[in-house]
Specification:
Layout lengths: L1 H24 L8 H9 L4 H59 L9 H54 L4 H17 L5 H19 L9 H17 L3 H18 L8 H19 L3 H23 L1
Helix pairs in contact: 3-4, 3-6, 4-5, 5-6, 6-7, 7-8, 7-10, 9-10
Keywords: Coiled coil
């Protein structure tokens, strides 16, 4: 790490010296007004950064899908168990009635399976079906995680492609170190095949990414990405009823919104007003520990940000 910091500082110093030499040696010239627009175009985020962002978002999207599917499967097993118990009771009563009717009309016919045996048989059938489905899901999950591991390796490659450009653009050493730390954490966590923890680590990458976008000319303030990151974090903490961790995440969200507002144009005034009200609703939901409302308001806030981004880009 010390060697990397030394390399970073050395590279920055070389860039500064080159810039000073260029200023001293070159004769000042008047530039046409079109140069300003050209400079803006040249200072756009490089393709390496855009590709890195796209890959992170793809990993996050896949993980979120897997996490939601896992929740549905768990809820399905619980519902299935309740349904089996209900059916046991119903089948037991129905079988008793059938047995009484059969004994009255056909005394010589014997029932081969008792009501409780029939109920148990149905239960075992359902359990076998659930286990088969679960095994299938587990296999699919394992395959998806193996694919995700490859994508995380690609993230390392894409980061190393962009890193020299980040240093050249005078990115802060703190931002570089934090991004690399979060990327290492993601690489380790994905080995555990824990969708929730891996989602938290992917989201942490999205927290640092705006630091690099601030080095360039963009139509959309990077603070909007920071808002998205913090909203996702609040929502993820709500999934586990982790209200202690949610409090600082909520404070960060409010602070970033205060920082973002002056940077936004009048074109999105309507969205800003909606965001302000929805943010206050989210704050109240966190204070009241209302998980359902937290989930709903998180979705609303994310959609409003998407509206802002669309307007600012147009």
């Amino acid at each position: 790490m010390i060697r990397k910091i030394f390399l970073y500082k050395s590279t920055v110093l070389l860039i500064i010296f080159a810039a000073i030499f260029s200023l001293v040696s070159c004769t000042p010239q008047l530039k046409p007004s079109t140069d300003a627009a050209k400079n803006d175009e040249q200072n756009e985020p490089p393709k390496e950064l855009e590709e890195l962002r796209k890959s992170i978002e793809e990993v996050e999207k896949t993980l979120m899908f897997m996490y939601e599917e896992k929740k549905k499967a768990q809820q399905g097993i619980i519902s299935s168990g309740s349904e089996v118990s209900k059916n046991e009771h119903q089948q037991g009563g129905e079988q008793s009635r059938q047995q009484g009717n059969q004994q009255q009309s056909q005394g010589e016919i014997k029932i081969e399976m008792k009501p409780e045996e029939l109920a148990e048989f149905s239960k075992q059938q359902q359990l076998a079906k659930d286990q088969e489905e679960l095994a299938k899901k587990q296999k699919e999950t394992l395959e998806k995680f193996e694919d995700l591991k490859k994508k995380v390796i690609e993230l390392h490659e894409k980061w190393n492609s962009y890193e020299p450009k980040a240093i050249k653009a005078l990115a802060q050493a703190k931002s570089i170190e934090e991004f690399e730390k979060n990327l290492d954490n993601l690489t380790n966590t994905i080995q555990t095949r824990d969708e929730y923890k891996t989602l938290l680590d992917v989201n942490s990458l999205l927290k640092t990414l705006p630091d690099f976008y601030e080095l360039y000319t963009t139509k959309v303030p990077p603070d909007l990405d920071r808002l998205k990151y913090s909203i996702k974090k609040v929502k993820l903490f709500a999934e586990k009823d982790d209200y202690n961790s949610m409090k600082p995440a909520m404070e960060y969200l409010i602070n970033i919104w205060s920082s973002a507002k002056p940077k936004l144009k009048k074109d999105v005034t309507e969205q800003m007003t909606k965001f302000e009200f929805a943010l206050n609703d989210l704050k109240n939901a966190v204070e009241n520990k209302n998980k359902i409302v937290i989930d709903a308001k998180s979705e609303v806030l994310t959609k409003i940000i998407d509206e802002m981004v669309e307007k600012l880009k147009s």
